[in-house]
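Data deposition worksheet. Section B asks for the primary sequence of the deposited chain exactly as it was used as input, without tags or linkers unless they were present during the calculation. Section C holds the resulting structure in token form. Section D is free text for depositor observations; keep each observation to a single sentence. Incomplete worksheets are returned to the depositor.
Section A, Depositor: J.P.
Section B:
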Amino acid sequence: MNCTDDVTESKVLLAEYDRLKEEQKTRIGFRDNLLYFTLAAATAVVAITAQSGQSRLLLFVPAICLILGWTYLANDEKISAIGDYVRDRLGPRLGELTSADGVVFGWEVYHRDVAGHTMRKRLQSAVDLFTYLVLPMVCTTAFWCSAVVQPLLLLASLGQTLALAVLGLQFLRRTER
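Section C:
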């Protein structure tokens, strides 16, 4: 008996589906933990700043939010891309092979049509924007309002502000999807 006798396109597609869903699950956990880690790191910086009285330390918050925000977005894009691929390519191909009457992997379509999906997506976007844009801008503004603002740090904070604006636009672009 040949080892390839048991391999069919349907089995290969199902194996691909299993691997993709495992990757998606792992990425979702990582992405969600990034949000918590960002909030914890920002809180720690604010606490250290308050304790030391060194307002320049507040500029670590935008840096943290930029790095972790881009990582969050990259993972979120991959999570969505996996869902799109399963829904638009993998499911229909498996449906053709099995002559399925309905949609294969129906959850990929169903969960998008459940009542409240759009509202939950908008609320999550508001949380994301608060965490990765508003919070660092509050820290930047607090730094700008402090008594000792050095020119080089002011320039750095303006660069961070520009980068945060780009990040915010990327979050808003993702929300529209």
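Section D:
DSSP finds five helices and no strands in the chain.
Residues 9-52 form the longest helix (44 residues).
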